[in-house]
Amino acid sequence: MTALEDPNSDPDLQNESIILQRLKEDQYVLIAEIGVNYYDIAKKESITPLEAAKRMIKEAKDAGIHAVKFQTYKAETLAAKASPSYWDTNEEPTTSQYELFKKFDSFGEPEYRELKEYSDELSIEFLSTAFDFPSADYLDPLMKVYKISSSDLSNLPFIEYQARKDKPILLSVGASNLDEIEAAIDTIRAVNDKPIVLLHCVLEYPTPIEDVNLLKISSLRNQFPDLYVGYSDHTKPTPDCDVIKTAYNLGAKVIEKHFTLDKTLKGNDHYHAMDPEDAKRIIASIERMDLLRGNGALNCLETEKTARLNARRSIVSAVDIPAGAVIEESMLTYKRPGVGITPDKLPKLLGLTAKEAIPEDTILTMEMFDERS
User: Fold this and answer.
1) Residues 6+ apart with CB under 8 A from 215
2) CATH number at residue 363
3) DSSP element (H, E) containing 166
4) Contacts of 94 (CB under 8 A, 6+ apart)
């Protein structure tokens, strides 16, 4: 599968999301969830967080990723100081949500605007999950698609507020029940008729293989046939990309996965993230899946035609047939190749008269016989 052409090269496409362009063309989308991982990259590389964020965008683009996503919040508006952790504290030892988020909330509108402009220069789509009303407002002119976190699935006033921006919505549905998903969709649809992508995910960081529950992708597709369905992955990457490949084969057209430049970094979302090499493997795996899946057409392939001709059977004389003989089924058998009269035409052959003597083991053609009188 070839990469989508630069949308900035066509004025008609400048205002459309790369994500939506690809979905409309029945192409998959890979989103790098950079989140706030750039803070740790900045510390490791002794550069500014903004420089680190840009480096991650560039690495994502170079790996073939289609969109980058950040997380926009302030700790004070996101979590109470007493909020407990819900992640693996062996990987991220901070036990307070407030304390964790406070480490990574220095960016505001100017920084995200600069990241948006840099993304546009590279022709990779920029988006960021808003976690409060002010963020939803200042991100509006910077994004062509809104992403709503699973954590806000029951926050219907906030969902409605973002839906009123009248843009397509990616809606993660981790840790939810069907009635909650339906309520969120109904809230969006009451004020917004743009495309919705439901993202199956599991709110375990990292997600154990036994909890991935990828058949939920099929359930979402069956339950909501008018919506796109995708998968937001929190498993640790594997060389064979089996989780992502399975999700894709079950119908996930959008794949979102946390992204880092160093999976060995402690804390936050590095330990279950993909790095650029993982991303390249994911893209190659999906392209291989497309080769294996084909187009599903119920017809003979062009590449099968020679084999079809030689492996199928023709009607063949089982005995010597004298000239003038009326053809009976006992005179016939069926052998390869299929270059003569095919066995399904047997009723048309029976009762015809042989124009000339036909030796045993001859592949029969209609030219050898007179029409019925």
Assistant:
1) 250
2) 3.90.1210.10
3) none
4) 85, 100, 103, 267
